[in-house]
Design a protein that fits this description.
This protein is of the alpha+beta class. 40% of the residues lie in helices and 15% in strands. Helix 2 runs antiparallel to helix 5.
């Protein structure tokens, strides 16, 4: 698959089959995360794979409120992304430049996971709407940790959608705003 094919095929999937995801494919996605770049090589993340059906369903339920994310229970795997402390140079750089490098790093790592999954014929959806406190309790995550994202993982049970995006003229300019 070319890179262009990869980005055309990666979409936020909200309908999954019940087919299990092999440990080998999960490991390939995690290896893509491990190799993701980060500010000062801080790697400020931990990806928690939730594939025990009962526990996964409870995590999915934490994301399904106010009509949001009801599909999460269909995915055979949910990945919980935990924000870890950055190394000293990344932390100092964030303070000096007033930029959240750790959140940028998490975004890059999460997209590496999702793109690798897509190449392997899997589908994903990043979820930011969930009960963080409940997920921490379910997975015995320390209260001090932050959980920016959940990622559903599985096989799509719906066709690829056409991407609707803004035209380039609205998102780019050259040499000035």
């Amino acid at each position: 698959m070319t890179f262009t094919e990869l980005i055309l095929n990666r979409q936020s999937q909200r309908k999954y089959t019940s087919e299990a995801v092999s440990q080998e494919k999960i490991q390939q996605c995690i290896e893509a995360v491990r190799l993701a770049p980060s500010a000062c090589n801080a790697q400020p993340w931990k990806f928690i794979i939730v594939n025990d059906v009962e526990l996964k369903n409870q995590v999915a339920e934490s994301a399904a409120s106010m009509g949001m994310n009801k599909f999460a229970v269909e995915a055979p795997v949910i990945v919980v992304v935990a924000l870890e402390k950055p190394n000293f140079t990344s932390k100092i750089g964030s303070v000096i430049k007033d930029k959240e490098y750790t959140l940028m790093d998490i975004g890059i790592a999460a997209e590496h996971f999702c793109l690798q999954a897509t190449e392997l014929g899997l589908s994903t959806c990043m979820i930011g709407w969930f009960n963080e406190k409940k997920v921490k309790q379910l997975l015995k995550i320390p209260k001090s940790k932050r959980l920016p994202l959940l990622i559903t993982l599985g096989y799509a049970d719906s066709p690829l959608r056409e991407k609707v995006r803004k035209p380039q003229t609205e998102i780019v300019s050259y040499n000035s705003y």
